[in-house]
């Protein structure tokens, strides 16, 4: 790699991919392009012709067509490989995974068969993943009516005078977030699967696309959310332009409210963060896991756990031993840590709060502010003053494990209002009755 500092180490804090500036890899990366296809011979021919015209070195570029069981043989030029799965309905997630398994490149680039890239697309989109293995890049998908245009026509000529409107919601999001530099837990919505790239190392760590998605839409957002939670960086690369043949999803026939609702409802279970999941329905993965270590009195244990779950009903509390209090044993949100596990036990929450003594939480605002801070920016760990324990994001935990270093996120110390250390013998009757002063508990 050229340059020094973040470029040399391949590590930057938080989502700060901008710190590498305009640096480029000293050697062009080995790129595998996975082209997802189903029965679109004309569109596929155009996309493969566009890939043959890339300015990325041909000997560093591998093209794999991943076919989702097309009813007719797939015709491709020499040097392009085809892998195929049987037709069992719409299985875009599965066919992309199939393409990855057949590939050999260090950088993975995903395209759809009806999305033809401009000549500089591969070089532009793969630059950041080559410099920063944790980067997930999303290109600019533009739209044009290419019906009747010969497949071998250069992209710039093919789209001239045939441009269709770009999705305003997407352009606005990229502008507000400075091309996703200011990404947060909900920025997965701006990662479009037809124009993304990432390192193989990150893809393998995150895991492939969720093959339980068997209807149009959502599999890319679920994967992007998982990648973000695993410590990935998100970046929009406006210079990496690929042209989709036809209008955006909202402009297509059949893309009505019922279809949009189906996607939103499917993601509500898979993306359990505020603004994506429901408000009252229990989430499959909790936003917060509280790990209370050590042995404590039944009274302090009850008040601590109850106050946490009252202010954060979607949280899970993990204890070192089975509680004696029946009210705690009967709540499914209270779990016992396996002796072989660490941190929040088997709970893969977005944030883990580790406590070595019981606390009373009587106001959610301060802690909620900490949870928000851990969902974006450079903060990965917050130490709460007054023995309030340590909050750590899954992003920081996963990135540290993958890179074998803690450099990727910062740690801060904060006073968080609404959190009070409990005395060993809090007045439980006063607590549940609501008539005791704070002195009865802390």
Gist of the model:
Helices cover 29% and strands 21% of the residues. It is an alpha/beta fold.
Description:
This protein is 29% helix and 21% strand. By secondary structure, it is α/β, with parallel strands linked by helices. Strands 1, 2, 3, 4, 5, 6, 7, 8 and 9 form a nine-stranded mixed β-sheet that branches. It has a seven-stranded mixed β-sheet with strand order 12-11-10-13-16-15-17. It has a two-stranded antiparallel ribbon with strand order 14-18. The longest helix is centred in the middle third of the chain and has 14 residues, at 257-270. The chain contains 14 helices and 18 strands.
- DSSP helical segment count: 14
Distance between the termini: 56 Å
- Please state the structural category: alpha/beta
Beta-strand residue percentage:
15-25%
Helix content: 25-40%
What summary fits the major beta sheet? 9 strands, mixed
Unreliable segments of 5+ consecutive residues: 340-345
Summed over residues and divided by their number, the pLDDT gives a mean of: 89
Number of strands: 18
Coarse morphology: elongated
Q: In angstroms, what is the radius of gyration?
A: 25 Å
List keywords for this structure.
442 residues, alpha/beta, nine-stranded mixed β-sheet, seven-stranded mixed β-sheet, 14 helices, 18 strands, 21% strand
Structural topology:
Layout (H helix, E strand, L loop, with lengths): L5 H4 L21 E7 L3 H12 L8 E7 L13 E4 L7 H11 L4 E6 L2 E3 L3 H11 L3 E10 L10 H5 L3 E2 L3 H9 L18 E5 H7 L12 H11 L3 E13 L11 H14 L17 E5 L5 H14 L4 E4 L6 H4 L4 E3 L14 E5 L3 E3 L2 H10 L5 E6 L5 E4 H10 L6 E5 L4 E3 L6 H6 L9
Parallel strand pairs: 1-2, 1-4, 2-3, 6-9, 10-11, 10-13, 11-12, 15-17
Antiparallel strand pairs: 4-8, 5-9, 6-7, 6-8, 13-16, 14-18, 15-16
């Amino acid at each position: 790699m050229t340059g020094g500092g973040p470029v040399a180490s391949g590590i930057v804090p938080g989502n700060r991919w901008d710190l590498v500036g305009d640096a480029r890899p000293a050697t062009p990366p080995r790129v595998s392009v996975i082209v997802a296809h189903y029965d679109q011979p004309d569109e596929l021919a155009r996309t493969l012709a566009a890939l043959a015209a890339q300015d990325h070195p041909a000997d560093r570029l591998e093209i794999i067509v991943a076919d989702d069981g097309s009813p007719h043989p797939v015709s491709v030029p020499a040097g392009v490989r085809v892998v195929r799965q049987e037709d069992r309905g719409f299985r875009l997630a599965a066919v992309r995974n199939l393409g990855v398994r057949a590939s050999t490149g260090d950088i993975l680039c995903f395209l759809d068969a009806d999305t033809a890239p401009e000549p500089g697309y591969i070089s532009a989109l793969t630059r950041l993943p080559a410099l920063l293995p944790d980067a997930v890049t999303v290109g600019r998908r533009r739209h044009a009516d290419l019906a009747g245009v010969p497949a071998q026509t250069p992209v710039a000529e093919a789209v001239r005078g045939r441009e269709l409107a770009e999705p305003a919601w997407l352009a606005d999001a990229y502008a507000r977030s400075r091309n996703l530099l200011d990404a947060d837990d909900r920025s997965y919505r701006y990662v479009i699967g037809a124009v993304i790239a990432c390192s193989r190392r990150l893809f393998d760590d995150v895991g492939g696309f969720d093959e339980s998605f068997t209807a149009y839409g959502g599999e890319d957002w679920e994967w992007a959310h998982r990648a973000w939670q695993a410590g990935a960086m998100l970046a929009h690369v406006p210079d990496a332009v690929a042209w989709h043949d036809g209008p955006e999803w909202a402009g297509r026939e059949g893309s009505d409210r019922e279809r949009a609702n189906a996607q939103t409802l499917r993601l509500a279970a898979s993306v359990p963060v505020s603004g994506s999941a429901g408000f009252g329905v229990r989430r499959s993965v909790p936003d917060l896991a509280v790990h209370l270590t050590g042995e404590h009195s039944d009274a302090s244990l009850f008040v601590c756990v109850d106050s946490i779950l009252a202010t954060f009903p979607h949280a899970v509390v993990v204890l070192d031993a089975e509680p004696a209090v029946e009210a705690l044993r009967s709540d499914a949100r209270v779990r016992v840590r396996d002796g072989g596990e660490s941190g929040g036990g088997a709970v893969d929450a977005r944030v883990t709060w580790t406590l070595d003594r019981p606390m009373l939480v009587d106001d959610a605002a301060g802690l909620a502010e900490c949870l928000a801070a851990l969902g974006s920016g450079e903060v990965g760990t917050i130490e709460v003053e007054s023995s309030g324990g340590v909050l750590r994001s899954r992003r920081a935990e996963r990135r540290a494990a993958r890179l074998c270093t803690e450099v990727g996120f910062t740690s801060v110390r904060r006073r968080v209002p609404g959190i009070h250390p409990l005395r060993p013998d809090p007045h439980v009757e006063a607590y549940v009755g609501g008539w005791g002063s704070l002195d009865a508990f802390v």
